[in-house]
């Protein structure tokens, strides 16, 4: 068949934009298709910032991927000519035997990441906004943690990919992918696109193109609050990226203000999947109600006093859960025409550049630089 490119990447959020960049940078003939515009606010990759950590408490196997991703984020900054990563360091706090602290220490020990354990007195001195940790709770300081730009990172990856020759179709929804004998027909309302292989990075929309995947998209709010008094303890350098386990109440995450203007502090609930509802991504319901912040505000009064009791801003986002919270990366059933990069689990932005590289390796039939057996898309069959 006459080809439009060798490879099509469908969906240019954090993962697809990185795959497009990595494929184009290797000289692969590649096109990308996005139903909205890069950096839009309808999927999983918006909301200004994302937290980056290398001591990944979600799975020790993610640590090499995070480390590689950091190198690639710096490469993207250089290629795009603007900063995308702010190395703030980060705090992982909670009961010493809780999943946040023990998962972080386990990942750090396994991979030799230098972390520092702080008791609640030391924490209160260095980070006054976290002064009221209960007895028995500690903090782990991870110096390599930081903050990634969200929308701008996606836009930068698409821009750099285009400079390397990638063709990009925006405002174009793929309605179907047809795996045919000699490749793939990517159907859009305007025209069909013919390629040898397709990379599906459609985030919460994945099962619309590849039915039957074990994916559950959930709606998740992001909330911003303003300090009621002195804003300095909530500046990013004093209130760097953190996850704090509160015992039976789950965990909160967030970071301080950094733009010097609004002083707004971003906060959210970890693993909102326990509370937040499964959705159809085409009908996600972006209108917000008090139900989107009331559980969090109830926790903040004790956990992080000194902030407004109502959020100053709320927006919604989506997370795509898998049964084991790990990603689906690879060729389902070994199909030589189809590569999946889906199932973000709510912790996938930091890894997007490394995932883009891994997807490019898989397309090219190479071993991935970081071992990724735990993300095999066939593991639930
Ligand atoms: C509130 C919240 C906070 C988070 N915090 C963090 C964090 O601090 N650190 C971290 O590492 N991760 C975090 N995450 C997770 C992270 O944001 C996601 O893992 C990541 O954004 C996933 O990106 P994606 O490319 O898979 O999905 P998306 O960004 O949703 O991209 C999928 C893209 O595919 C497009 N698309 C879908 N279907 C089609 C189609 N048929 N045709 C064309 N285009 C299509 C969509 O429009 C979209 O652009 C958070 C997530 C949420 C919701």
Layout of secondary structure:
Elements: E1 7-10, H1 14-25, E2 30-33, E3 49-52, H2 62-80, E4 85-86, E5 90-95, H3 99-111, E6 116-118, H4 120-126, E7 137-142, E8 146-149, H5 151-163, E9 167-169, E10 176-180, E11 183-187, E12 192-195, E13 197-200, H6 206-209, E14 216-225, E15 241-245, E16 251-255, E17 265-269, H7 294-303, E18 313-321, E19 328-330, E20 338-342, H8 352-363
Parallel strand pairs: 1-2, 1-13, 2-9, 5-15, 13-20
Antiparallel strand pairs: 3-8, 4-8, 5-7, 6-7, 10-11, 11-12, 14-17, 14-18, 15-16, 16-17, 19-20
Helix pairs in contact: 1-5, 1-8, 2-5, 2-8
Bound molecules: flavin-adenine dinucleotide (FAD).
Low-pLDDT parts are: none
- Major sheet strand order: 6-7-5-15-16-17-14-18
Mean pLDDT: 95
Secondary structure: helix percent? 10-25%
CATH architecture annotation name of the largest domain: 3-Layer(bba) Sandwich
Rg result: 21 Å
Percent of residues in beta strands: 25-35%
The coarse silhouette is globular
Number of domains: 2
Biggest sheet details? 8 strands, mixed
Helical run tally: 8
Each distinct ligand: flavin-adenine dinucleotide
Order of helices and strands: EHEEHEEHEHEEHEEEEEHEEEEHEEEH
Distance between the termini: 33 Å
- Overall number of strands: 20
And the CATH topology of the largest domain? FAD/NAD(P)-binding domain
User: Could you name the CATH homologous superfamily of the largest domain?
Assistant: FAD/NAD(P)-binding domain
> Structural class of the secondary structure composition?
alpha+beta
Name of the top-level CATH class of the largest domain: Alpha Beta
Keywords: FAD, Flavoprotein, Oxidoreductase
Pfam families: DAO
Protein name: N-methyltryptophan oxidase
Domain FAD dependent oxidoreductase: 6-361
């Amino acid at each position: 068949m006459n080809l439009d490119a060798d490879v099509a990447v469908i969906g240019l959020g954090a993962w697809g934009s990185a795959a497009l960049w990595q494929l184009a940078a290797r000289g692969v003939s590649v096109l990308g298709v996005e139903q909205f515009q890069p950096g839009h606010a309808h999927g999983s990759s918006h909301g200004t910032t994302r937290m980056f950590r290398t001591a990944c408490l979600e799975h020790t196997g993610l640590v090499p991927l995070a480390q590689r991703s950091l190198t690639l984020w710096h490469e993207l900054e250089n290629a795009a000519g603007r900063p995308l990563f702010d190395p703030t360091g980060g705090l992982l706090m909670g009961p010493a035997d809780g999943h946040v602290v023990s998962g972080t220490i386990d990942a750090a020990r396994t991979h030799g990441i230098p972390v520092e354990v702080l008791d609640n007195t030391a924490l209160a001195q260095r980070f006054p906004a976290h002064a009221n940790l209960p007895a028995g709770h500690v903090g782990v300081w991870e110096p390599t943690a930081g903050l990634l730009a969200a929308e701008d990172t996606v836009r930068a990856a698409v821009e750099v990919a285009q400079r390397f020759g990638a063709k990009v179709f925006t405002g174009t929804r793929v309605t179907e992918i047809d795996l045919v004998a000699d490749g793939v027909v990517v159907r859009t309302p305007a025209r069909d696109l013919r390629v040898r292989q397709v990379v599906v990075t459609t985030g919460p929309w994945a099962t619309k193109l590849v039915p039957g995947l074990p994916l559950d998209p959930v709606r998740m709010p992001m909330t911003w609050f303003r300090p009621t008094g002195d804003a300095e303890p909530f500046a990013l350098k004093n209130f760097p990226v953190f996850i704090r386990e509160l015992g039976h109440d789950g965990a909160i995450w967030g970071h301080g203000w950094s733009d010097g203007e609004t002083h707004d502090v971003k906060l959210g609930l970890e693993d909102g999947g326990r509370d937040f509802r499964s959705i159809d991504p085409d009908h996600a319901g972006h209108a917000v109600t008090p139900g989107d912040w009331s559980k969090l505000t109830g926790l903040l009064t004790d956990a992080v006093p000194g902030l407004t009791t109502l959020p100053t801003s709320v927006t919604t986002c989506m997370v795509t859960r898998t049964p084991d919270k790990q990603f689906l990366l690879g060729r389902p059933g070994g199909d030589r025409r189809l590569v999946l990069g889906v199932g973000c689990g709510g912790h996938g932005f930091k890894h997007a550049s490394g995932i883009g590289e891994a997807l490019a390796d898989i397309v090219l039939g190479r071993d991935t630089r970081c071992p990724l057996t735990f993300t095999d898309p066939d593991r639930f069959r």
